[in-house]
Amino acid sequence: MSAMLEYQDLKSPIHKLTGATKLIALVFWALASMVTYDTRILGAMFIFSIIMFKVSKVKFKDISFVLYFILVFLLINNIAIFFFSPYEGVEIYNSRTDLFHLVGPYTLTTQQLFYQFNVTLKYFSIIPMALLFMVTTNPSEFAASLNRIGVSYKISYSVAIALRYIPDIQRDYHDISFAQQARGIDMSKKAGLTSRIKNSAAIIMPLIFSSLERIESISSAMELRAFGNNKKRTWYSGRPFEKRDYIAIAVVICVFIAALVATKLNGGRFFNPF
Q1: 95's torsion region: left (phi>0), alpha (psi -120 to 50) or beta?
Q2: Which residues cross the membrane (predicted)?
Q3: Is the pLDDT of residue 208 over 90?
Q4: Could you say which DSSP state residue 1 is in?
Q5: Are strands 98-103 and 106-109 parallel, antiparallel or unpaired?
Q6: How far apart are the first and last CA of the chain?
Q7: What residues does 37 pair with on adjacent strands?
């Protein structure tokens, strides 16, 4: 099994950015992805996000377990889109080019393929950046950065705890899964889909209870230390904004503006090549 989705302390230009910079960049990047279905913009964003992954020195194999679930989600999402709206692309692009008939009312069209390709490209443009944010952001430094830009230190600290807790949830999931499989519960590919869904309850319920127990322990520890009594607090991992932070924010704002301009020029969110 591959490594967990957690912070990796590497030496790269992405790691040197403050946590607040990466959050601001992620927000504008997500907004740019949401406002447009222009294939050219989304394709450029996807390529840029892959380049940023390379620059960060994070290996895709280190998060392959997470990528597997993302790919499964995208496959299910595309099947659901076609099942419930097989002609959404036809309505959007005001044209229809049939490829071949499938079954019943379902006919595969070029416009539907293009529409679903753009939907998938949207995910591919934002997911790498979201993963990059997770694995290159030190939770403590991120909390300090949030507090520096005006976010309450209580909220900032809560966010930091949540980020730290993600790897723990993943470890608990694997430990519980292995323990249940040792008891004879089959979660492998050999079991049918229905059986695996049913058997997953044997993992989810213990995971929920262990998470609630950990939350209670953390809450008690913070209460005993009188967390929240003071209006301000100091941060060991705090870092000021530097030139590279402003450059990174300016770049993603330019991407967001480009998405808005493309939407204006296309007369809507969709780029229509038909």
Answers
A1: beta
A2: 26-53, 65-84, 113-135, 246-265
A3: no
A4: -
A5: antiparallel
A6: 45
A7: 270
Cα–Cα distance measured from residue 124 to residue 151, given in angstroms and rounded to the nearest whole number: 30
Instruction: Say if CB 118 and CB 37 are below 8 A apart.
Output: yes
pTM score, whole prediction: 0.72
Cβ neighbours for 229, distance < 8 A, ≥ 6 positions apart: none
Q: Computed from CA positions of residues 13, 19, 23, 28, in that sequence, does the dihedral angle turn out positive or negative? A: negative
Q: What is the pLDDT of residue 195?
A: 67
Measuring CA to CA, which residue among 119, 115, 64, 124 is closest to residue 94? 115
- Crossing angle of helices 19-35 and 243-266, in 10° steps, is 10
The closest alpha carbon to 1, from 182, 175, 194, 133, belongs to 175
The torsion angles phi and psi of 36, rounded to 5 degrees, stand at: -135, 150
Residues 6+ apart with CB under 8 A from 151: none
Core vs surface per residue 195-208: b (16+ CB within 10 A) or e = eeeebeebbeebbe
CA distance 159 to 93: 42
Q: How does pLDDT run across 153-198, given as a tens digit for each residue?
A: 777 777 777 766 766 676 777 777 777 777 776 666 666 666 666 6
> What are the domain boundaries of the chain?
1-138+240-274, 139-236
**Mean predicted confidence (pLDDT) in 21-27:** 88
Task: Report d(CA 38, CA 220) in Å as an integer.
Answer: 50
How far is it between the farthest Cα atoms of the chain?
A: 67
